[in-house]
Amino acid sequence: MTALGPFLLGAPWALAALLALPLIWWVLRATPPVPRLAELPSLRLLEDAQPREETPARTPWWVWLIRTLAVLAAIVGLSQPVYAPGARSGETAEQGPILIVIDNGWPAAPRWTELANAASATLDAGDRDTPVHLLLTAPQQLNPDPAERLSKADLGKRIGTLRPQPWGSDRTDALKRLDASGLKPARIFWASDGLEAGGGTAFAADLAARAPLTVFAAPATGPVAITGLSAETDAVTVRLARADPQGEARAFASAQTRDGSAIASAEATFEAGALTTTAEFRIPAAALARVARFNVTGRSGAGTVWLWDSVDRTRRVGLVDAGTAAQPLLSDMHYIRKALEPFASISTGDIDTVVATSPDAIILSDVGQIPPTDVEKLTKWVEGGGALIRFAGPRLAAQGDELLPVGLRRSSRALGGTLAWEEPQGLAAFPDTSPFFGLTIPADVKVRQQVLARPDPELSHKTWARLDDGSPLVTADARGSGMLVLFHVTAGPDWADLAYSGLFEQMLRRAITAGRGEAIEDTEGTYTPQLTLDGFGRLAGASANAAPIKATEFAGTVPSEIHPPGLYQGPAGTRALNAGAGAKPELIREWPAAARLLGDAEARSLRLAGPLLAFAAGLLALDLFIALFVAGRLRLRPRPKAASLAALLATAAAFGVLLPERALAQYDYQLMPDGSYRSISTESRVVPLPGNSTPQKQIEAALEMRLGYVETADSALNARTRAGLIGLSNILLMRTSVEPADPHALNLETDALELYPLIYFNVPGGAAPLSDKAVQRLNAYLRTGGALLIDTRAGETAGTQTDVTSLQTLLEGLDVPPLQPVPPNHVLSRSFYLINDFPGRFAERRLWIEQAGQPGAPRGDGVSRLFIGDADWASAWAVDQNGRDLYSVDGGAEQRETARRFGVNLVMYVLTGSYKDDQVHVPALLERLGEREDTGEAPRFPGPDGEPE
User: At 597, is the secondary structure helix, strand, or coil?
Assistant: First the structure.
């Protein structure tokens, strides 16, 4: 090529055509455009006249200018000019081989186009036959040999096919390959990423010592890499680094799904002089679960992409709400929530809601019976890879289901206490095969009660933790791709001290992780490449050259050709190898004195032949258009403005009529739990208030406190039950501050049970079992604080105990703990009146309540929500419209009064709980009743008429 200042000419002899410009000017000037023909009616008089053709004297100047510029652009374009200011040194450079050095590691990706163009521009200088050689600094198995001689055309094509690699440059290895080639270049051009990584300063000095060196340094401005990430429950912080600390810089990072869809973005600001900064994302848990990677917006490269693996990811845990919201500090879920909050994203709801969010784990606390429909959903979710973690308790001890890792005995084992021979047990060392192996066991953690597992040959293999006596404390079993995990104690402090220790949090964390088939301590096994990044930060399938990584070596692995950055599958789930992890980019600040540094403008090479020829063709087309227009061959007949406006308005009106009204509204989109999006209209609209669709019964129950009773198929029994509750309501109204309205008959499948504090179930003879829906709604009612009184009315046989076995079929599926007779000194005997018996129509009958904690010891707040007996209390309470007793009572008026006092105590106990559990009020009561220590007179209790008996 011939250099002409900053221009290089590939065909300089084409410029000789410029000598013909005067001749071209004369020809163009002598051939004006053809005049336009116009026919006038008056010219018919001259039809017989001899016509004489006339031609203008000269071509208009603007037509001549257009044609001259077209010819000039065509001549210059045919000379193949190239604008290459950086190639001016080629005139004085030594003749000989040219070595092109290109940094093709991941730091070069943001400005890869500039690096490739700078290398291509160097090829435009010098002789066309000058040999060129290529040296790439990113180590690769099939890297080109620097000794290979290439023509400028071949090397230009090869540079066009090059792409940056997703690992870093190794300039020491590049020098070794250059030395092994034996090449002695006459001059060297280095397209550098401008960073010190890999010994940039020493590399430049070595190249300058070999031959005259020209360098185009193209360090990326702004963020160079994402160096790390830290995750919390509802926030993710991404750390970014840059190489040039001068000035303040802003950048944006985005959170994306695996397929590249952006979910959220965050701004990061580099302060003046700062090399690092952070971008913080606040994303809801449902959306955060879909985030798979973070990248710097507008920066394509493997270093500006951070893959989020399962090890760093916040765990998503679903807690099944068992109705403990009313008393959170007394519930097991309180301790589970506090243990999970430091490392997990928590969602709460029923089983259907929690499963829909696809969490990593679901936790159930003391749930003995799960409805069949929910069992099916949980089973499918567990088999798909979920971890179901359950805690024992009185309900699970009384009845279990199929979603347990081992079979259980239908009782709990008490360790310690006045009736137990055994002392509370500590925890034994965790087995080597347990996920808990390596955790420190506090000596003060003791277990006082547990649910025992049935003997089984596989029990030892399913045990993750044991007590000192060898009995299982935590068992687990695989179910499909997921895991079932059972803690044989409560999650709260009722049965064990585990909830008070830091060990509880660590065990929960490892149980959640191991439940997904992942191990915390991955000291064995390998990680197989699943997806890898290319140099521009795009995910693709792993190449054939990618090799597995040993688990023990993964943390120290540096990205390379055999271990490219990407996602690797192994014993701890999915782990990410990120190109920019821990990177500290630094600019090369010392260049060799003999080296010539090119800026962006000097390194740019612009081939002008194509644009000039296109410009000439455009001018010639314009000249042809003008000639046709002047000759009258083109007739442009624009519409009148009024007609055009009318047509436009008509089109708009027609479009508005045809377009549906809903299509004109603006819409936004909301992310749903299943990952789909739902359109939501953003236009302002009036939302009508709900009509009177709520049943009147629910409105009445919400406005006034009422007792409820289960409506059965026996109408006579329903009338008796209603009369009994009316009598009890009247007693409460006269003697207490409770003012109940008339009771309601309830359908367990349809009515709002939560509006009634107490529901009376008078069981008819030969009653059919309750439906699954009724049992499910009763379970929810009891868990949310409701109370259920079941009366079998079978106490007419004196001397026999209450038989509750007949209720097993009727109430099958009801999630209740073991039952026990009301123990002496129970708060139910003094919640309002001081009574020792709970008679109804029949006397000396047992009243069964929930057994909680150790025998006789309350669990949580100690309030039972289930009461079962056979004394026929409704008949003892029943009155007619005039307030007269309807049915006889075995013990007469005294027994009826005691039955009414029991009814009052029961309602006060349900409403106030353990309010009267302390006995500080007993001395004041005795003093008010007239007891004096000096007389020894027994206390006198008020009779039915209010006078002392």
Answer: strand
Supply φ then ψ for residue 659, to 5 degrees: -75, 130
CA 918, 920, 921: angle at the middle one, nearest 5? 105
Please, which residues have CB within 8 angstroms of residue 854's CB and are 6 or more apart in sequence? 414, 417, 448, 449
Task: Determine which helix (DSSP H) or strand (DSSP E) holds 720, and give its type and residue range.
Answer: helix 715-735
Distance CA 375, CA 782 (A): 20
Top-confidence range, 36-40, 196-200, 375-379, 928-932: 375-379
- Backbone φ and ψ of 569, nearest 5°: -100, 130
Q: What is 317-515's CATH superfamily?
A: Class I glutamine amidotransferase (GATase) domain (3.40.50.880)
Tens-place pLDDT, residues 668-718: 445 454 444 454 554 545 445 555 567 888 889 889 999 999 999 999 999
Q: Where are the beta strands (DSSP E) in 711-773?
A: 741-746, 758-762
Q: Which CATH class is domain 85-219+587-604?
A: alpha beta
* CATH architecture label of 696-918: 3-Layer(aba) Sandwich (3.40)
Residue 662, pLDDT above cutoff 50:
no
Q: Which two tokens stand for residue 394?
A: 């009185």
**β-sheet bridge partners, residue 694:** none
Q: Report the distance separating Cα 619 and Cα 610, nearest Å.
A: 14
Residues 484, 520: contact at Cβ < 8 Å? no
3-state secondary structure of 118: helix
Instruction: Provide the residue ranges of all domains of the chain, joining segments of one domain with +.
Output: 85-219+587-604, 221-310+528-542+558-586, 317-515, 696-918, 920-949
- Distance separating alpha carbons of residues 243 and 585, to the nearest angstrom: 5
Provide the whole-model pTM.
0.55
Copy the structure tokens of residue 795.
């106490």
Residues 531-581: pLDDT tens digits? 999 999 998 888 888 999 998 888 889 999 999 999 998 876 788 999 999
Residue with tokens 């402090």: 493
Residue 654 identity (one-letter amino acid): A
Assigned token pair, 751: 């009515």
| Domain 85-219+587-604 shares a fold with domain 317-515 | yes
Residue with tokens 């959640």: 512
Amino acid code (one letter) for 227 = T
